[in-house]
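Chapter summary example.
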Amino acid sequence: MTGNGRRLLRGCAATALVGVLGVGAAACGGGSEDAAGGSAIGLTAALGTAPEEDAGQTLTYTDVTATRRLVKQDKALYGGLATYGIPEVAQAGYENRPLKETHGFDENDVDTSLQIGSDRWRLTGRFDVNAVTDGLKKLGFAESANDDGALLKDRNGGQVAVSASVRSLSLSPDTPPPALATPKASVADDPSYQAVARCVGDSTYYATFYGEAQKSRTPDVTLYAIGATVQADGTSRERLCALTSSPEGAARTADRLRATAASGERFAGATVDAGSGATPMVTMEWANGPQALPGDQNRTLQLPKLFMGER
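The structure predicted for these 311 residues follows.
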């Protein structure tokens, strides 16, 4: 990890899959555009902030506002999501120092998180640009000109951009942080992403999209995502949605998933539907509980491994 990575994420070694750990919470779809082009809430709106060239990346959406409520209500069930898709939150916990003190913001200022790949994040919310800038300067960052807001860079790599409504981070010296403004063309314009997002549902409190690059591993599956919602009775359920390339591919995919839902298996009792049509949407749903905590399948990659030819 770069010097900047250590500075921003000291103590995060135990969460190497922090992007997959990101968990968002539900709220109302769509969201609203702010002065910087940021989107307040909603899965579909969040996907609209990821440029189309990132369609091959793993994207993890977190509705931070709703996840904070869930963690407060039931820490035993939702406590594993308490990093809220914000990498600096784990650092603050390890250092036992308030995040506001070191970085000029904390999870209470954040509405949503979108992680792009393994080293970029875009947070929406309400940010004190001066406080964030001052905090990063104390960590050794230097401010650069940026028409949309403040841009700060560390000499060892890593960049942060911030406006009043968006804070974005890149741990790479060669890759800029996600743009503060929404792109002209995004992954949300892709029909595959639109279909999978509809299947997952805009009321998800987290969702991870496994990008189209995985098609080289599993020709049967074009794109898939795993997300969770809280039902009217207060229970949490997770859903996998896999857009397949053919009815035959859908049948093979459904068979793989049914094997994990058999008696004695981790997802015993889950329901699997092979879908219909020329490019069926295969779904698998299960209830969360002590043996299937929200986000567990993302942390362990158990279900994604099925689409990588592993068991």
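To summarize the output: Confidence is low (pLDDT under 50) at residues 1-40.
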